[in-house]
Amino acid sequence: MKKINLSIDGMTCSACSNGLEKYLNKQKGIFNATVNLVMATATIEYDENLLNQESIEKFVQEAGFKSLGEFKEIKIEKKTQKEKIKFIFFSILAIVLMYISMGHMLNLPIISFVDPHSNPINYMIVLFLLTICFLIYGFDILKNGYKNLIHKTPNMDTLVSIGVISSFGYSIFNMFNVFLGNHHQVMNLYFESSAIVIYFVKLGRYIDGISKDKTKEAIQKLVKITPNTAVVKRDGVEKTVTLDEINKGDILVSKAGEKIAVDGEIILGKAHFDESFITGESKPISKEIGNKVIAGSMNYDGYIEYKAERIGKESTISEIVKLVIEASNTKAPISKVADKVSGYFVPSVIVIAIITFLFYLLTGQGFEIAITSFITVLVVACPCSLGLATPLAVVVSEGLCASNGILVKKSEILENAQKVNTIVFDKTGTLTYGKLKIAEVLNYSKMSDKELLSLIGSIESKSTHPIGKAFTDYIEQNEMQFLEVKEFENVAGYGIIGKIENEKFILGNSKILEKYEIKNNCLEDEKKLAENGNSIIYVVKDKEILALIGVNDILRDNVKEVISILNQNKIETIMLTGDNKQTAEKIAESVGITKVISDVVPSEKAKTIKDLKQDGKYVMMCGDGINDSPALASCDIGVSINSGTDIAMDSSDVILTKNDLGSILDLINISKKTIRNIKQNLFWAFFYNVLMIPIAIGLLKPIGISINPMIASLAMVFSSITVILNALRLRRIHVNKSSS
Q1: Of 279, 388, 395, 694, which sits 20 to 30 A from 414 (CA to CA)?
Q2: Ordered structural domains, the chain, with CATH
Q3: pTM assigned to the model
Q4: Of the residues 426, 624, 636, 666, which is catalytic?
């Protein structure tokens, strides 16, 4: 199975996207196709043995649209001056048409040349020509409606097309009668209905287009973070180039006040950098030789040279944008329900319209009333607002999340986050900053503390665990040399093993002693270290314990406040850690977590999550994204606190790039308000149709309430505008505060 994300041209409304999606999903070799109207993309999973990009693009063309190739960038196509002028022109034309066709009914001054009573032929021809202009203006609607009917996927365009063509056809029939001398038939022309229905549909789409562009602006801001050019140093000569001209391994120059162009590593100089757009840390971060820099970060005060490592699509920012786009191309379960209902709704409306037509015809009320009622039912029931209800709300929320450092990989997460009733936290790097420091050394060997720590630091330098950083920092700060380590081995959940000068050393927690059957005669010392809140490292050589090292960490600034708010909202909080029981319970108590599961290895963490789920809990796991991957994969929603530089290989559902636990509260808050917003949209869309269809049929005529096709089309536009404005309210959700 292969996956491709295509940019699609020609989609103007939810009817287009739904029609294309249904058509693609019917094709042999396509496993799943999801079309995103707002981003103008189609994500397709297909059998590469049966299909290729060319054949898939042919399907897109058959459905009435055009593929622009693989998706590369977000485009916000602001309404051009030409489009605005065209819309204004047709707005004026619509007013003229309405004046000519209905002015005499309202006793307005009539131009004698187009007076239906004195010059019926002129009146008729002018209406016909003006209507032809509108049919050309709305040709895309008519074409899509016809194609979707042929493909047996009728949608909003189909309803509008049938209504418009029926009205226009009936008017043509009466026009010939007028030419034959039946001048009284001039009052039975409905050219203006065809034209005005198209105009109002176009009006709705014009407003919708502006709204969709607004939802993409937050995402596009991420793209604009990186500069357009950079200074590359080649053969000692500095040269300004575009980002496309940068190659991996190139040496780039950054001076004070300039932005970093690509992800890389500093090879010369030092400076302070603003990385708040990724990490959320408002204070400038000091970096020097050997440190990594992120594309888009601002160099405050120094001169550096750095080697390009991740360019183009590999850069951190590109990965963020890619994740946001992929998320918006997935569908939340509630969206699929709306699509399914819409799929049944359109054929049902066509049947109701036909029954209405036949009823009026068979009861002898005349063809004119029958056809007018038929057209009104079709137009008033167009499910445009129904199609917009979910996707627009989801994309607005995803843009809001992305601009606030919450990367949601699937739309369903936005729906499900509000269901969470249990959150499991890893300790190191999640509840704490993961910036461990050596607190206490209990040295039982003949080596000095400095020699012992040099040995430990050399082995720990081969590990990616946060504890290792405490020892490597010690060696660097004391300007010591790293020793050569051979036969390094990572024993997941227990510790590490390495050889120095042919002597084998084992470093790890107390469980590693059990694993290798080493007698632990240091339990009292371990207890004392644990009581002081230390994580404990055993150092073993030849089954002899050489030392106990106590390392401790710093709690995140707002962790107590976040846990307190979760507890207030009756969301159970659990600490799940491989650390010893005493240390874990001490830290849990200090932050307000009452349940602690300690001394667990990664595989046991995953089992614990599964057990919680079996107890009926909806579980969110918050960890470091790499070490906790088995547990993150096992829970309902996996959340990783990540610096942003490892986004590409992160396996969680949500990435908090700002390293702020308060973002969990924001995610749950956004989820609750998004689902509430979608339900409101769906209610109003269904309520509108349920209310308007009986009026269109004519059931309320006995009490003087009725509508015609023009009023129906205007009502349809207001329905869509209501949904759009309601969805855009989500942009005002307050985030980045623990109390949000």
Answers
A1: 279
A2: 2-70 (3.30.70.100), 229-314 (2.70.150.10), 406-431+556-665 (3.40.50.1000), 437-552 (3.40.1110.10)
A3: 0.63
A4: 426
